């Protein structure tokens, strides 16, 4: 899959098969990859799961109580097992006090389970996290459409967003007791040419997306 989407990176693909940190790590190195995490409050998820089970259950005994749902959710989210479970091999130790650099430039302290397939570990690596509190699927789809998930700005920040991130990163070195501030000095990226300059349309598009300005050299004398 990785080789295919790399060769066809201008085509949009959606997959649900990246369910381990190793797989996500392989795709995360590609500049066209966006990991989206969708979550919802536990009580809302339990209500939805119970409604689906009640609609398909053929036996009145096929019910879902909250305690069973929470235990199942813990196994998926954190890779943990409970004392009354027979299988205790997937018990994941908690790795605390880890610092991650958010896209905004700020450092985030989080506690991430070491379980390879724990959903919490995958959610912590998501570039975009969406709270699905919508009542119907059409409402969720409409919300996803409003987010412009295929916009290149989600994969490659604009120059303004890039420099603001550098400001946030620089502010982390501040030792002022009253306020953390950061600043960077920027300028227009220019390619100056003297006579004539020509390029194919593809190259011109790449420079345009990078914000590079072409300017012909004009002597001041």
From TrEMBL:
The EC number(s) this enzyme carries: 3.5.4.12
Keyword Hydrolase on entry: yes
Source domain of life: Eukaryota
GO molecular function, one term: dCMP deaminase activity
Gene Ontology CC: one annotated term: cytoplasm
Keywords: Hydrolase
The keyword Secreted is annotated on this UniProt entry: no
InterPro entries: dCMP_deaminase-rel
PANTHER family associated with the record: DEOXYCYTIDYLATE DEAMINASE (PTHR11086:SF18), DEOXYCYTIDYLATE DEAMINASE-RELATED (PTHR11086)
Protein name per the record: dCMP deaminase
Gene field: DCD1
